[in-house]
């Protein structure tokens, strides 16, 4: 989209309309069109899918070119994240948003806070996607409005150099709209329910949907116990449902992220259907715990018996009716899950792990890549991991294995602040800092995300403010701890009226009413106190 071409195109339309449109300024209309690049969620989904596909190809050629995101639970949080990225890093390239089902459940359900068990309303995820993109589009509008205002000021002053500079910035404006990887949990029901929910999410703007192989009505957070997986045929049906939804809506290159929880899931709700030895169902059933039997005398009332490996197997079944997998089969099940998903329409993988360990992830990815060489992961850099303790223990173990003296460290107490400035803990922090680079290079991770970081940052910042404001600091807690830092660090929200759209509204009033416009940004607007800070 070219700004100058938009002006010319609209000028032609206005001129053709005759004198009744004489009050319409083509450049103002072009500005409004330029500020509203994406007309629908599907426009966004198609645009961002192209970005993700390009990024995936670049990662395949060079694994240092991985992508990142942070989970956001409100449109404003997502907006401020992208504004910060553009301010500090100058580009949004390879930075996405993640929409966490955990945070939707905990923060966006009409039931109030809920655990991550697919109990929140089905349409709440699509609603959050739409909200996030509404705020990102508003960020575009606001930033361009500032550029247009500056352009008018430069023209009024006759500053041709500044005018040319601003026109270049407008022509090369980078949108705040980036890809969202959106969590559809286990599909919220059968494959038809999954398809219907996927359509809502894509229509809201999602170009990438992440789905897990847990049972819908038994779904648990990936970092809690009691996870129950489904046979591959069930999961493949839901992968197909997602692809059909993308194709129906014209997002032909939409991205499916297939998540496996098998590493930590020891249960299955059902025995897979199998038609012949070695098929997918037979492979799934081969991991079942149980005992082989020789006669009907070994079968009690209600027992289930299947034929496996040429023998009769009585699977271990709990009082809940669920069946158990054999201990130690998690990695093998993960590899089978991932290979199967990639061979049945998935584009990216998500392996939910119990700790952030590059070696463990690499072991699984190397096995997957024997079957699918370009397999790559979306990885959850989860707040459920105790990163400090995990990496300190990893360093401790590596040093001990290498024969280095670790006698001054207590492995079980490495979280203690007493160790914070030690050589071991400095090494652990260095490994945490390089984890994303190392894991992308060594373990096939294309996209690193933190599922619910802004849940924690909101809690931490609110705790700090409340502690001081309701304590001895009073108003100083806000002024010193928030507002003064906003001013010093150039946080645009210090001018909160502008961030909420007041100046945009003034601009539009001037377009619509000319000199008769009643604008909010007059001399008595207290936001003027921040104009020159």
From TrEMBL:
Family matches, as CDD domains: ICL_PEPM (cd00377)
Keyword Metal-binding in record: yes
Annotated binding of Mg(2+), by residue: 183
Cofactor: Mg(2+)
Catalytic function, reaction form: D-threo-isocitrate = glyoxylate + succinate
Keywords recorded for this protein, A-Z: Lyase, Magnesium, Metal-binding
Classification via InterPro entries: ICL/PEPM (IPR039556), Isocitrate_lyase (IPR006254), Pyrv/PenolPyrv_kinase-like_dom (IPR015813), Pyrv_kinase-like_dom_sf (IPR040442)
Active site: 221 (proton acceptor)
Cofactor, how bound (note): Can also use Mn(2+) ion.
SUPFAM superfamilies in the cross-refs: Phosphoenolpyruvate/pyruvate domain
BP GO annotations: carboxylic acid metabolic process
Chaperone keyword on record: no
Domain of life: Bacteria
GO function terms (MF aspect): isocitrate lyase activity; metal ion binding
Binding site for substrate: 100-102, 222-223, 259, 380-384, 451
Cited NCBIfam families: PRK06498.1
Family matches, as PANTHER family: BIFUNCTIONAL GLYOXYLATE CYCLE PROTEIN, ISOCITRATE LYASE/MALATE SYNTHASE
Protein name as catalogued: Isocitrate lyase
Organism field: Thiopseudomonas denitrificans
């Amino acid at each position: 989209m070219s700004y100058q071409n938009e002006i010319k195109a609209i000028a032609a339309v206005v001129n053709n309309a005759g004198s009744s449109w004489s009050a319409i300024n083509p450049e103002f209309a072009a500005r409004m069109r330029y500020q509203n690049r994406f007309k629908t969620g599907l426009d966004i989904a198609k645009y961002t899918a192209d970005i993700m596909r390009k990024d995936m190809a670049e990662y395949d050629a060079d694994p240092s070119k991985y992508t990142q995101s942070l989970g956001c639970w409100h449109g404003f949080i997502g907006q401020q994240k992208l504004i910060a990225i553009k301010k500090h890093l100058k580009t949004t390239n390879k930075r996405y948003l993640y929409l966490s089902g955990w945070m939707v459940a905990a923060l966006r359900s009409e039931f109030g806070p809920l655990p991550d068990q697919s109990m929140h309303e089905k349409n709440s995820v699509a609603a959050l996607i739409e909200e996030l993109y509404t705020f990102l589009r508003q960020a575009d509008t606001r930033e361009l409005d500032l550029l247009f205002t500056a352009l008018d000021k430069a023209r009024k002053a006759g500053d041709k150099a500044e005018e040319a500079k601003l026109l270049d910035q407008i022509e090369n404006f980078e949108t705040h709209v980036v890809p969202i990887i959106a969590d559809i949990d286990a599909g919220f029901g059968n494959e038809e329910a999954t398809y219907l929910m996927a359509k809502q999410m894509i229509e809201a703007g999602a170009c990438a949907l992440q789905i897990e192989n847990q049972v819908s009505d038994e779904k648990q957070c990936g970092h809690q116990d009691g996870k129950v997986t489904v046979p591959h045929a069930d999961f493949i049906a839901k992968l197909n449902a997602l692809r059909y939804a993308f194709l129906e809506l014209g997002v032909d290159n939409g991205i499916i992220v297939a998540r496996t929880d098998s590493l930590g899931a020891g249960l299955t709700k059902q025995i897979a259907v199998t038609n012949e030895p070695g098929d997918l169902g037979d492979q799934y059933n081969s991991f079942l715990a149980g005992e082989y039997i020789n006669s009907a005398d070994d079968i009690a009332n209600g027992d289930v018996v299947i034929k496996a490996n040429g023998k009769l197997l009585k699977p271990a079944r709990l009082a809940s009716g669920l069946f158990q997998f054999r201990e130690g089969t998690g990695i093998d099940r993960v590899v089978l899950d991932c290979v199967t998903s990639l061979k049945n329409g998935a584009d990216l993988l998500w392996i939910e792990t119990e700790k952030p360990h590059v070696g463990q992830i690499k072991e699984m990815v190397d096995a997957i890549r024997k079957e699918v060489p370009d397999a790559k992961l979306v990885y959850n850099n989860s707040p459920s991991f105790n990163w400090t303790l995990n990496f300190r223990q990893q360093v401790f173990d590596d040093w001990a294995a290498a024969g280095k003296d670790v006698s001054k460290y207590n492995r079980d107490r490495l979280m203690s602040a007493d160790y914070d400035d030690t050589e071991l803990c400095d090494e652990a922090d260095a490994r945490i800092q390089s984890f994303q680079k190392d894991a992308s290079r060594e373990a096939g991770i294309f996209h690193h995300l933190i599922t619910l970081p802004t849940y924690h940052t909101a809690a931490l910042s609110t705790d700090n403010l409340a502690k001081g404001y309701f304590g001895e600091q009073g108003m100083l807690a806000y002024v010193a701890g928030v507002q003064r830092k906003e001013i010093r660090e150039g946080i645009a929200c210090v001018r909160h009226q502008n961030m909420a759209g007041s100046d945009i509204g003034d601009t539009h009033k001037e377009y619509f009413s000319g000199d008769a416009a009643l604008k909010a940004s007059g001399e008595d607007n207290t936001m003027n106190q921040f104009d020159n800070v």
